[in-house]
Amino acid sequence: MKYIRMKNLLTLFVILTSALFWGTGCNPQTQEKEAYLFAYFTGNGPGEEAVHYAISNDGFNYRALNNNQPVIKADSISLRGGVRDPHILRGDDGKTFYMVLTDLYVPNDGWSNQGMVFLKSNDLVNWTHSTIHIPEVFPETFGDVHRVWAPQTIYDPEVQKYMVYFSMKQGNGPDIIYYAYANDDFTGLETEPKQLFYHPENKSCIDGDIVKKDGQYHLFFKTEGHGNGIKKAVSDQLTEGYTMEDEYLQQTKEAVEGSGIFKLNDSEKYILMYDVYMKGEYQFTQSTDLQEFEVIDQDISMNFHPRHGVVLPITMEEAKRLVDAYGIDEKNLIMGVNNDQVYEKNVDLDQEEETIYLPVKNEVDLSAVDPEFQMFTGYSLSPSGAQDFSNGPVSYTLTKPDGSTQTIEVSAKKDNNPALKGYYADPEIIYSNKTGKFHIYPTSDGFTGWSGTYFKSFSSEDLTNWQDDGVILDLKKDVEWADRNAWAPCAIEKEIDGEYKYFYYFTAAQKVGVAVADDPAGPFVDSGKPLVDFRPEGVRGGQEIDPDVFRDPQTGKEYLYWGNGYLAAVPLNEDMVSFDKSKVKILTPEDGTFREGTEVIFRNGKYYFFWSENDTRSEDYRVRYAFAESPMGPLTIPKNNLVISKAPEKGIYGTGHNSVIQVPGKDEWYIVYHRFTRPHGIDMGRAAGYHREVCIDRLTFDEEGNITQVEPTVSGIKSIKLD
Predict the structure, then answer these.
(1) Parallel/antiparallel/unpaired status of strands 257-263 and 270-276
(2) Where is the signal peptide (predicted)?
């Protein structure tokens, strides 16, 4: 048995917030539970299979501790080098905590493992641990086990022991949920595992989660491999007699796993949450009877992306201890605002500058804005109610847990960046002669590892007020040859025999496809096969992604561009859905800055090629450009060719992957690009690369046609008027 001491990584912040919570000194078993601890892991990659913590004061709004870095690193406790599916139980004495984890490192092991990790603590910060390798402990009955997944613990009052239940798989048999009793030290199993639940059709079951209500035990589980969701079995005994109910309980058609259920403090409501793992999302649902569940995602906020975790009600004293140990980012003290008036994702609290920025919606009257601040436990802002922001900032008083106060100047503004509200990236923009509107086609963002599977479009008459036109292409429904990684589309309008057609080029599964529609807002019909599914001759590495389409106004001829790590170009055939492969040409800029995201325009006799430099997860993701003699090059790189880059003083980072639009009939140009979500993206680490938002700023040129470097803004542009 080994001992772990968690290190305080945010000492300064802890000093400032050491009184964030105050306890009564009562026994935690009887002390009121007024907060919640969310324990989770973050993904399948290196370093992501570890224990993370987040805190909530209401069970709905969660903020990561320790800057969303692990509070327990896997290599300090596991045999395999990774731990997943954390479950924490408060012991029967009210003050001892028991954590169990899957011992698995996916990058090396795939989905095969043979063990678990047991931990024990008196304070949720310092843990002792031990590992259990099932084939070694039970060689005769379980020597051939090759999956030991998602353990959980519950106290059995009949035998006064802690029961651990988990799924195991042997040979070609189904995954079965077993149970065994832990020894008194919680360092191992003292009984051989027995089958806990018998599926009536002998189908696989994993991710068991038991809650007791009205004298009955409700076992939630996933029908792994035989169905796509969560079911439930009920018994009046903990270890036997479970009868499965027929209904699936998840409220989505997406694949789910890792259900976790907990009761809200001082309420009869239960929250059932589960991991929508193919989309990198969590869904929260609510019930009072554990039969009917209602989706409450609109009430949930998190500044992290969890995978298969658990929520544990905790006391104020315990919450204080956790915040003292790990700290919370001051930007996240505001847990929620009035969503009817304010864009919550972009609210910016700067305690050092003593300011709060509220981006309000266009229809809101600035003379009567009620922010309805919901603060992290122990903090409050006053005054309350509607305030007049029409004449500038309003002074608020921030009261801290220790009773001290700070004056905060709160400003409310109707800014136009981000142009699209929510997580979107890789924007392509066109003007449609048919509709007389501008249309933006972005990547749907916010999905872990860029795992989105659908595309949307947005339309506007003035470049500032954007209407969501809905999903125009869904890979899982509309595309036969790919169902993942819906990225970086582009589009073009073409008049054919007096009718407008719209050609939509998109990335799916690292290939380029094309779909066609009669309207710029779709729906689009896929051609049935990828247009680009090959690496051009002479190219090594990179990906076949990020298409761009361009019509040469001098010839009327259309061209397609694509590539990550290289820039390929080819003339399109008249049908717009094919090309001569022998005409593909590599135009990769020779200065070594090209990464992806090509955009081509024509102005005053000059062809301009834009591209993005660095990785989209980098704060230095930015745009450069070159001149060309024709749509097929060659490229000439000017001395000062930076188009747009980060502006740290404004909290703007990761400005890249652009398109450009000209106002019809005018020499007036705008750049449409994405940035990290502001203000929180810069603190998200690598996750900032898939939490991006679309912005628009003015693009200008000097007398010689060189691009004047764009200063990215928070305010955005003013509405334009079409003649």
Answers:
(1) antiparallel
(2) 1-23
